[in-house]
């Protein structure tokens, strides 16, 4: 069993539930080291004193915040721990909200919450089941590794999932970041076709059907270069659809999407029909076998 990366208590009202926090996700990107081109010399990073040019041990490094004109306030690690709310051991829930009310832009990273001991497993189960029944998420704050987090705690099957959230002031204003954006579309015909395309391409969310194809390509690139083979790139960069071609592109896309859906429906129907036929064949075979057994018994008698 994996070790928890944080442990403490989920607090709501006067109730405290001891829990441990575990990573719920892992990325599968390819690791690369850095080398000087044309050599096998690794590039290393060192913590260097900019005045003396000497390397400094990690244990001798403290943090400093600039307050203006090159002046810094130095802060020790234990000073940060001392001001952490609840000594970094409390997940304090302030309110419960409908999960659908949270804009997805706020979600950051997901973790599992598990009971930290079996003696309090029943209180964990009670909290989890209550969240599931009410379809609510508990909004909490907690401190981990010198940083305060906003979090949403929800039930997911047998486990509680904690998703860290961006605070409101961490979300950048789209207008300030991007500038002017297109006004509401007035092209009714094109809008209707775009809606038709979305409807034709709609389906159920199945996470397992999506694969990280880029990482697979990187693996093949590394393998090919290791074997001394040339790497051939066949995929071309897409081009923007011209406004004059938009209607025809939408129409063709809708027709193609509907054709794919129709093909999928036919395959599904054929598969069901085949399954039903096999079941009927098995029943018929079973009846014939039973009939033979009865005939054999009569003859024996």
Automatic annotation (TrEMBL):
Coiled-coil regions listed in the entry: none
Region Disordered, annotated ranges: 258-301
The UniProt record lists the keyword DNA repair: yes
Biased composition (Basic residues): 274-301
SUPFAM superfamilies: SPOC domain-like (SSF100939)
Keywords: DNA damage, DNA recombination, DNA repair, DNA-binding
A GO biological-process term: double-strand break repair via nonhomologous end joining
GO molecular function: double-stranded DNA binding
Domain Ku: 53-180
Chain's role: With LigD forms a non-homologous end joining (NHEJ) DNA repair enzyme, which repairs dsDNA breaks with reduced fidelity. Binds linear dsDNA with 5'- and 3'- overhangs but not closed circular dsDNA nor ssDNA. Recruits and stimulates the ligase activity of LigD.
PANTHER family in the record: NON-HOMOLOGOUS END JOINING PROTEIN KU
Record text on subunit structure and interactions: Homodimer. Interacts with LigD.
NCBIfam families linked: Ku_bact
Family membership: Belongs to the prokaryotic Ku family.
HAMAP family xref list: Prokaryotic_Ku
Stated name of the protein: Non-homologous end joining protein Ku
Gene designation: ku
């Amino acid at each position: 069993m994996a070790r928890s990366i944080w442990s403490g208590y989920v607090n709501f009202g006067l109730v405290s539930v001891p829990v441990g926090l575990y990573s719920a996700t892992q990325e599968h990107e390819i690791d690369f080291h850095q080398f000087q081109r044309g050599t096998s010399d690794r590039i290393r990073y060192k913590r260097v004193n900019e005045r003396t040019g000497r390397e400094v041990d990690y244990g001798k490094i403290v943090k400093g915040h600039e307050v203006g004109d090159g002046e810094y306030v130095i802060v020790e690690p234990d000073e940060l721990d001392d001001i952490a709310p609840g000594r970094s051991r409390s997940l304090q829930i302030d309110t419960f909200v409908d999960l659908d009310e949270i804009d997805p832009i706020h979600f950051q990273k997901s973790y599992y919450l598990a009971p930290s001991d079996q003696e309090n497993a029943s209180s964990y189960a009670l909290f989890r089941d209550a969240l599931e029944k009410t379809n609510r998420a508990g909004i909490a704050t907690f401190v981990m590794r010198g940083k305060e987090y906003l979090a949403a705690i929800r039930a997911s099957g047998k486990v509680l999932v904690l998703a860290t959230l961006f605070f409101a002031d961490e979300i950048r204003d789209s207008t300030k970041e991007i500038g002017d954006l297109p006004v509401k579309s007035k092209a009714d015909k094109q809008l209707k076709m775009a809606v038709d395309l979305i409807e034709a391409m709609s389906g159920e969310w199945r996470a397992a059907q999506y694969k990280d194809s880029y990482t697979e390509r990187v693996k093949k690139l590394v393998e090919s270069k290791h074997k001394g083979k040339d790497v051939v790139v066949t995929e071309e960069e897409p081009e923007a659809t011209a406004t004059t071609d938009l209607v025809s592109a939408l129409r063709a896309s809708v027709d193609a999407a509907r054709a794919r859906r129709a093909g999928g429906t036919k395959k599904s129907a054929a598969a069901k029909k085949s399954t039903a036929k096999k079941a009927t064949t098995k029943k018929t075979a079973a009846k014939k076998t039973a009939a033979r057994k009865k005939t054999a018994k009569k003859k024996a008698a």
